[in-house]
Amino acid sequence: MTQPKLSLRGVAKSFEGKEVLRSVDLDVAPHQVVCLIGTSGSGKSTLLKCINLLVPVDSGDIVLDGVAITDPGVNPNTVRQTMGIVFQSFNLFPHMRVIDNITLGPRKVHRIPRAEAEEQARELLDRFGLLDRADEYPDRLSGGQQQRVAIVRALVSKPELMLLDEVTSALDPELVGEVLGVIRDLKAEGMTMVIATHEMGFARDVADVVGFLDGGVVLEQGPPAAIFGNPHEARTRQFLQRIVDAGRL
Amino acid sequence: MPWPRRSARLREEGARAVLIAVISTAVVFGVIVALVLSSDAWPAVQRQFFSWTHFKAAFPKVLGGFWLDIKMFLFAEVIILGIGLAVAMARSLRGPAFLPLRIITIGYIDLARGLPLLLLILLMGFGIPALQLPGVPNGALFWGIAALVFSYAAYTAEVYRAGIDSVHESQRMSARSIGLTQMQSLWHVVVPQAVRNVIPALLNGFVSLQKDVALVFVLGVREGLREADIYNARTFNYTSYIAAAVLFLLVSVPVARFTDWYTDRDRKRKQAMST
Questions:
Q1: pLDDT at residue B274, rounded to an integer
Q2: Which residues of A touch B171 (CB under 8 A)?
Q3: Does A84 lie at the interface with B, CB-CB under 8 angstroms?
Q4: What is the average pLDDT across A77-96?
Q5: Helix residue ranges per DSSP H, A169-212
Q6: What is the pLDDT of residues B82-103, one digit of tens each?
């Protein structure tokens, strides 16, 4: 077996005594798309933030390309440059134009001259149909456009791993499609992704592996057909049944 | 046609409200003025405090001194805004590595805010020059301004910090996620938004400092209040103080009005954005 892009072993995290992640084990192969499903509060977001080192783990190891990035000696800023994360609420910088949102990282972290950084940014914006929005401020954009800009901002540093944290949950239903379309494009290009999502239809469609997060562990994982068609665990069945009852699958 | 009639009635009510406001204001101030002027001591007070002759005689000197107040204010304010921001940023850095920095800034803020400004001016203005440290300036003006900066930078740092805390945590997280260091996240992402949120509070600090610069008169600095004091000591007439008061008001009232105007505009802008 090839070396996994990302592996998690026994990752645990509590907030003020409340155990959110108990012991998470997960492997993500290169170019694989892993979708994390589970109820709100099951720790999907926390797990993604732990992988990005935005939230320090209490115990356990996170290994990226064979290197344990949870080691205290590792510089988190260097690690973050190799992966991109996109949040539920976009989190664009409201005081900067779209183009500046995107070039801030390249200019300040990679010290790329402004002209060159803007050229790269405009190329990416063009690819995602956002070029005409480059000089706007974020609050002039629709939610879907803002989220696509956030994806471009994460992509501009050429990450090898993308973490997507419920990126469509804050969107009006008619805007969900354009963002999911972008993610499908990324998959087609071979991007390795870990996606926390409530969009079960999308997860079934796009995931190579679906993991069901429950009680602070990955209770069950496997190909989408197996998880959605024939889950082993009672908790997984219960969760999916509720989704079906709500008409969301 | 109910509409025109209704708007006519509203206009009538509006006019009546204005009329009531004008009359009640006139009555209140009229009564106060009448009480003061009818007092037996008023002629004496008028001679002592409101003598036109003395006003004209004292004004040039007081104005000359007041110009120094303005220069002190502008100079100190620029330094205060800079140091205050630096202190607030140092205090906002997280992680064990920055603990010493946080302890120093908290200690400084507690010290500077815990002492009466006048006491600080006296201590620094008379105390430090008395040490006769080599290479350290010992002018009263220098240490007077230094004391003002020392005190006001601490308050200003707290204003900035409130602004920094008002920027949602997700902004900082998002800045870190694209690889920026803590310092870069603060400087490029958090601080620009923070400053915008606290401009009214910073302007309030301006108004306050613009008056408090006069406190350095206790060190013998010949600014406006000192000049007024000297005139009073020479003539035993207090009109020079009134001249100083007029000058301070001429500057501070417009700044206060501007602050209100800006705060109001800012509030409306935020309301417009949230809808």
A1: 64
A2: 91, 93
A3: yes
A4: 92
A5: 173-188, 200-206
A6: 999 999 999 999 888 899 999 9
Q: Which of B157, B149, B253 is nearest to B202 (CA)?
A: B157
Distance CA B163, CA B176 (A): 19
B175 interaction partners in chain A (CB closer than 8 Å): 93, 104
CA angle B148, B151, B155 (to 5 degrees): 125
In which residue are the tokens 């600014």 written? B223
Contacts of A105 in chain B (CB under 8 A): 178-180
Q: Are B226 and B220 in contact (CB under 8 A)?
A: yes
Question: Of B155, B190, B191, which Cα lies nearest the Cα of B175?
Answer: B190
Vertex B75: Cα angle to B70 and B80 (nearest 5): 120
CB A148 within 8 A of CB A182: yes
Taking the CA of residue B72 and the nearest CA in chain A, the distance in Å comes to 33
User: Burial code of A29-43, b = ≥16 C-beta within 10 A, e = fewer?
Assistant: beebbbbbbbeeebb
Distance CA A163, CA A169 (A): 15
Q: What angle do CA B55, B59, B64 make, to 5 degrees?
A: 165
> Which residue type sits at A165?
D
**Closest CA–CA distance from residue A95 to any residue of chain B (Å):** 7
Q: Is A239 on the interface with B (CB under 8 A)?
A: no
Q: Which candidate in B174, B189, B197, B274 is best for mutational testing of the A interface (most A CBs within 10 A)? A: B174
Within B181-238, residue ranges assigned H as helices are: 182-184, 191-212, 224-235
B177 and A80: CB-CB below 8 Å?
yes
Radius of gyration of chain B (CA): 25
Smallest Cα–Cα separation from B259: which of B215, B210, B191? B210
Q: Is A87–B180 a contact, with Cβ atoms under 8 angstroms apart?
A: no
CB contacts, 8 Å: A104 with chain B = 175, 178, 180, 188-189
Q: How far is A221 from chain B (nearest CA, A)?
A: 27
- B124-134 pLDDT, tens digit per residue, is 999 888 888 88
What is the three-class DSSP state of A219? strand
C-alpha A214/C-alpha A211 separation (Å) is 10
